[in-house]
């Protein structure tokens, strides 16, 4: 496990970059390709199952513009050779004030590529304003 | 309660048990971690039950109380459970702070253990 230590960190960071780049800079139509067939998304407490349902949810989010700024991200390998990632940051939607968010991803290597099997997103409602 | 998927029931039960132990006597948390567990505590990694317990028992407060605002649970492809918790905590006489914590639970020998744990205070999101 020690010699592979950097793999999960590198792959985790690469996924996070790709995810938010696609989220912010495209019409989000391609985001579904990052998920596995049977992936789970929980978006502000509502569950979605499967790539199609997740893709539809993300594409239909009701804003014109969005920008994420990542403050922190933590990555860990799991026993089953997956990668767990926890992301903290801020996002700005249209002309709304910035809001904090918190997102957790789990990645699994399927058919030679890392796919997101689990995604949990929540806005940060307890954050201390500075 | 019977309507909830099994991973939600297990996840919710674990979360309740974890914070109850943490708030009453966190030296009892050892039973939920295993030798290959990973903890990331405010960005610092800790590996293995022994190291994790050392970290948790040496946290510099006497009293702590967690209050859960929201929790989400999902099944994973390898029959594990991913749980994400958002809440507030109060340590000693410090002001109340928000926190986020994520767990991966795995069933080993008929018992659900925590293989992955990530904790952060909710202070990183405003600049």
TrEMBL record, chain A:
Domain NTF2 residue range list: 11-123
Arranged from A to Z, the UniProt key words for this protein are: Cytoplasm, Nucleus, Protein transport, Transport
Q: Please classify the protein's predominant subcellular localization into one broad category.
A: cytoplasm
Q: Which CDD domains does the UniProt entry name for this protein?
A: NTF2 (cd00780)
Query: Entry's PROSITE patterns?
Result: NTF2_DOMAIN (PS50177)
Ribonucleoprotein: is it a keyword of this entry?
A: no
| GO biological process terms on file | mRNA transport; protein import into nucleus
User: Is Nucleus found in the keyword set?
Assistant: yes
Q: What is this protein called?
A: NTF2-related export protein
UniProtKB/TrEMBL annotation, chain B:
UniProt cross-references to PROSITE patterns, sorted A to Z: NTF2_DOMAIN
Q: Can you cite a GO biological process for this protein?
A: mRNA transport
What subcellular locations does the record give?
Cytoplasm; Nucleus
Keywords on this record?
Answer: Cytoplasm, Nucleus, Protein transport, Transport
Domain (NTF2): residue spans on this chain? 10-121
According to its record, what are the GO cellular component terms?
A: cytoplasm; nucleus
Q: What is its main location?
A: cytoplasm
Q: Which SUPFAM superfamilies match?
A: NTF2-like
Q: Coiled-coil ranges per the record? A: none
Its function? Has a role in nuclear-cytoplasmic transport of proteins and mRNAs.
Name the record gives this protein: Nuclear transport factor 2
